[in-house]
Amino acid sequence: MASSMRMSFILFFACSLFLQGTLGEVICETLPTNLCSFAIASSGKRCVLENFQNNDGKLEFTCKTSEVVVSTMAGHIETDKCVSACGADRSFVGISSDAFLAPQFTANLCSPACYQNCPNIVDLYFNMAAGEGK
């Protein structure tokens, strides 16, 4: 009996450690640049890809926390499937409506694969369009 109780405790402890690692916070500054765009930090602020010139004069990228707050979806990192379905590009620097200039972008954004499955990207671009009166 004591042995099974000890084993249950060890199993519970191991599972607790595993869950803490998988349920960690999303912090923009710690994300790799290939996951930065279309991510939302645990604080609810959007992550944004920025570029800078390093000491050698080379252009590098970093992930930063923007001031744009999303009231839902905190701690969300968009899937590659959604980025592709919506015709978005993770290499965009900053949060910009430049994507609207691409002829197929709006069609991709409004497609069922994007519109019905990718609320983060849809929310971002619809709010930008509304803010710019498009």
From TrEMBL:
Pfam families from the UniProt entry: PAR1 (PF06521)
UniProt xrefs under PANTHER family: PAR1 PROTEIN (PTHR33649)
Signal peptide: 1-24
Entry keywords, A to Z: Signal
Organism, scientific name: Olea europaea subsp. europaea
Name of the featured protein: PAR1 protein
Superkingdom, taxonomy of origin: Eukaryota
Keyword Signal on entry: yes
Keyword Protease: no
